[in-house]
């Protein structure tokens, strides 16, 4: 009987230990209770979050996206699993957007920014000098000028959320709604609801702000009539600590296709086109914003040859209307050669108005109209607001 | 014919009750690597990365390749698209091959070895000798498990080494870019490949432990291979069903994708660590079951 007992004990304990271990990996992170934090005034929290300089940190963020983006080229920009963010506490940052078999890498330091796409083996370099920086600062007001590629900022929860707060602050009712634990850190939950006058399809946006560093750790976008967030981007790991300086240097690999742009040139080009455009982003887009806050509509033109890249081209508009980034973030990478007109005919519905005619594409949080003559209007707003925006042009 | 017969007779009288593990191991390994099927499958594992590399290289450089614009520094007929350039590099090719083969062929190799280790010997009647020999059941299991471990290690190493050499021949030593766009030195690449081999071996050993548990309970080696492959395929199907995502952390192949993280720079260790831990859990379960079954087994 003894070997039998021994066997039973061995089998039983082995299975228990093994299953216990597996269950450990299955535990959802941050299932703890909400932390107890000193009460804080919403206005105070917003101000401190906007003024805070992020410390040196590294983090891993994950996205959950229920936007229902149609399969247009560029929509795959939000099709990633996780983002790794490194920040040196000053100017430099590195954002790596990880896809199952490829990666987008954004590196920004004091005088240049790189965007590298491993699938295309292409790198985009953006350079600027002090004069450009000063000019950008002047345009952007007292907030530090943000250089670098806009997609990188959209993928980094901290920067994206900061921009959302900044953009929507004047047109929102802001309250602090309890606390949360994000990436194992104590955070305040800030809730932004559109003022009644705003014509938007969004219900609210919640931003979790780290208690210690005041870095936004996560944001969730809720649309009308849905209980689950349509877009959620937040850190699952966040660690404050000095980062290796080598992370913020980038040399494109041999054989990569490199394009270099100078911020000064871009700003100049923009000045000729649209005037008040925000900052150096990608080359060549001219975008204007109609309205502000929640019902801001981005209006731009699609160059005929870039039709394939269409809405994605609006990516650098991240600072102008947050949906400009959220709805259309990205760098129009794969599938850029597809026939946009054909696609629109399939997924869109025809609209017409004073502006002419075009196709309307609706997603969970808003929509876009692409007119037959190549103009685009997009925003988190009902269709009529888009039409009005186009009519005003 | 059996290894232990010689062991038992060579044993000097005072030490009769303890056969040296070292000698048992050597005998076991000699036994494994003399089996033609082991050699055939190992040979296949070595050839596959070469075939992959050459095939991708041919499609890239052949006339059928879509010509991209810029005149490349290498390749007179226009640059191959990156995906392809990367796939033949001495860094990506071994890791890519390892990942592909880890899905079925490598686990099959290990399951085969584990099936032969206990069930196979049982069906030949050879295990009976082992069970009667002066070798404790626990040590018998250790010997068998180490045999499977060596097979896993050799198989993983062969795949990576063959991919690495193929990559060196096809793309040279100066095309070692990570997915994040950074160039890696040859030393760094080798370091990561060693990590990949170690990780893959642990993963395969987890498969092997489960296979040994099955192997200890049956006398049909075929059953071992079939159950392991069946289990992997079922896991794969379950992993595709997103409604079952609460179940996914319990499934071994869930961690396979994290091998891609080794191509990123800096390496994200989270997924690999979790995968290693998951493999360890399976290892504990498998080995304890195998031990339980083996100790209660009659000669």
Characterise the protein shown here.
The complex is a heterodimer of chains A (393) and B (299). Chain A has 393 residues and is α+β, with helices and mostly antiparallel strands. Chain A has a domain of 108 residues. Chain A contains 9 helices and 18 strands. In chain A, the strands form 2 sheets. A 12-stranded mixed β-sheet of chain A has the order 7-8-9-10-11-1-2-3-4-5-6-12. Chain A is globular, with a radius of gyration of 23 Å. In chain A, 50% of the residues are buried. Chain B has one domain. Chain B is 69% helix and 0% strand. The longest helix of chain B has 35 residues. At the A-B interface, α1 of A face α4 and α11 of B.
Shape of chain A: globular
The share of residues in extended strands of chain B comes to under 5%
Structural class of chain B: mainly alpha
According to DSSP, the number of beta strands of chain B is 0
Mean pLDDT of chain B: 82
Biggest beta sheet attributes of chain A: 12 strands, mixed
**Number of distinct beta strands of chain A:** 18
Report the total helices of chain B: 11
Distance between the termini of chain B: 18 Å
Q: Number of helical runs of chain A?
A: 9
